[in-house]
Amino acid sequence: MAGKAFLESALQNRTMEAKESLPHKYTMDELEDVKTRLKETVEWLEEGITEQKKLAKNDDPVLISAEMKARGVTLQNHVMKLTKRKTPTPPKKEKAKEQPKEETKKEEAKEEKAGQSEPASDAPEEPKQARAPEEL
Fold first, then answer.
1. Taking the CA atoms of the chain, what radius of gyration do you get in angstroms?
2. Cα–Cα distances in angstroms (integers) from residue 88 to residues 66, 85, 125, in the given order
3. Cys-Cys crosslink for 55: which of 59, 76, 84, 91, Cβ 3.0 to 4.6 Å?
4. What confidence tens digit (pLDDT) does each residue in 106-122 have?
5. Contact 72, 12 (CB under 8 A)
């Protein structure tokens, strides 16, 4: 089952993220929710199989394929919503933050110097109109 594989890999990744002090992609509540949904689906399926075995071959089925598909799709959609989530970015180190600030200050100083040598004109230039010759 895909839900079970997702749950196992998510728990392993959570352990690895904890060791490396990285932010977790999934909360424990979300993982517990997947676990309970998976458990409920498996229990429902097992109960249906045991009930089905008790019935004669000419009786109406207890398990209907449409219901099985619906439950599977519901679980799959829930898991897919979690897997499509972006991985949170790790916090930046302090040294990495200081370097860009210095670079931006240097760039701003260069722009100020360049701006002083060129006249700044915010208003667009108006096109010159040709004058009609004066009549005599």
1. 33
2. 37, 9, 49
3. 59
4. 666 666 666 555 555 55
5. no
